[in-house]
Design goal:
The protein is α+β, with helices and mostly antiparallel strands. Helices cover 24% and strands 35% of the residues. The protein has a single domain, classed as Anthranilate synthase, CATH 3.60.120. The chain has helices at residues 79-94, 117-127, 178-196, 235-242, 253-263, 320-338; strands at 7-10, 13-22, 33-38, 44-54, 74-75, 100-110, 132-138, 143-149, 152-157, 160-164, 166-170, 205-215, 218-228, 250-251, 274-279, 284-289, 293-297, 305-314. α1 packs across α6 and α2 (117-127) crosses α6.
């Protein structure tokens, strides 16, 4: 709906009064407060807002969000196709073409033409709170995103840059396997390499490796990679060196991207991309990896659709059925929230999406 005013929310900040929209990452080093949405396939939308203020996410209004029916979701890869894809990736690994690759699927359900993604934000804040939750509503530019991401893609404070890759998911810490730790270390090496392309030589460090982090309905293994950005490098160079995020592609990244393109049948869009904000005046910014993310696609055949992605990292040690179950685990709680079937007052447990 193009009559919905442009808006962005991140944490306790809300931005309005749209001033400028560009696809040029270099603009993020100019001035002002920017909302940033980067699709996995590379489309970048940067929106500068004139009014930024502290304001909590409003409580969900009765009837504010008209979500899809719980049984209306379809998937780009069904169980048979997904498990076959896992086996194919293991064949690529056996041939030495890749060490790890993420295999994802996109879920889709019809949504009311009057659906407002900001109303979904209120439900997510209550049903699945997340450290990098955010909303970008730019209907005229085809961007209507609500994310409950737990994963830091890039944080910048002056020339200090940081990434927080997630690899390894279970219901509890006891579910995490040796495979999960190996996968996390593999992706940390990839992120170190990516940041190293634009970092001061010798400045890349790993302050935290494979920490167990609880999130609604599950736990993750999370690491932290930090570096100092070269003086001549800015956001354009940083994004060029690191995008798409390593944790949702694989290693080596170039090989994993070719495998993803061959096996996945639907574009990921904002899912697995980058979503967040940049304050160019202060030289700060925070972009999440676009997981646990909903978006409205108003160009979908048959009318507007609400979309959501889920996936898993595949290694030689992957069991196809277990990987399918991980994608289900990551999705079910959030789909229930979006369909209005999750009651946060009844259940503090449950299931939550890479």
């Amino acid at each position: 709906m193009h009559d919905l005013p442009p808006l962005a929310r991140f944490g306790g900040l809300v931005a309005s009064d749209l001033r400028d929209v560009t696809h040029d990452a270099a603009s993020l080093d100019s001035s002002g407060f920017w909302a940033v949405a980067a699709d996995f396939e590379g489309r970048l939308v940067c929106a500068r807002f004139g009014d930024v203020r502290r304001e909590p996410v409003p409580p969900a209004a009765p009837g504010g969000w008209r979500g899809p029916a719980t049984d209306s979701w379809t998937t780009s890869l069904d169980r048979t196709a997904y498990t076959a894809g896992v086996r194919r990736i293991r064949e690529h690994i056996a041939r030495g073409e890749v060490y790890q690759a993420n295999l994802c699927r996109v879920l889709s359900a019809p949504v009311d033409p009057g659906a407002d993604v900001d109303a979904l934000t209120s439900l997510l804040a209550r049903g699945n709170p997340a450290p990098y939750a955010g909303t970008i509503r730019l209907p005229a530019y085809g961007v209507e995103i609500a994310t409950a991401s737990p994963e830091l893609y890039l944080r910048r404070d002056g020339q200090v840059i940081e990434s927080g890759p997630i690899k390894g998911t279970g219901r509890t810490a006891a579910d995490l396997l040796e495979k999960d730790h190996a996968e996390n270390v593999m992706i940390v090496d990839l992120v170190r390499n990516d940041l190293g392309r634009v970092a001061v030589t010798g400045s890349v460090t790993v302050p935290q490796l494979c920490a167990v982090e609880p999130h609604p309905g599950l736990v993750h293994l999370v690491s932290t990679v930090r570096a100092e950005l070269r003086p001549q490098a800015g956001w354009a160079e940083l994004l060029a060196a690191t995008f798409p995020p390593g944790s949702v592609t694989g290693a080596p990244k170039s090989s994993a991207l070719k495998i993803i393109e061959a096996l996945e049948t639907s574009p990921r869009g904002p899912y697995c991309g980058g979503i967040g904000w940049v304050d160019a005046d202060r030289g700060t910014g925070e972009l999440a990896v676009g997981i646990r993310t909903f978006w409205i696609d108003r160009t979908a055949p048959g009318g507007p659709a609400l979309k959501f992605g889920t996936g898993a990292g595949i290694t030689w040690g992957s069991d196809p059925e277990r990987e399918w179950a991980e994608t289900e685990l990551k999705a079910s709680r959030l789909l229930a929230v979006a369909s209005g079937a999750y009651d946060a007052t009844v259940s503090a447990s449950g299931r939550a999406g890479s």
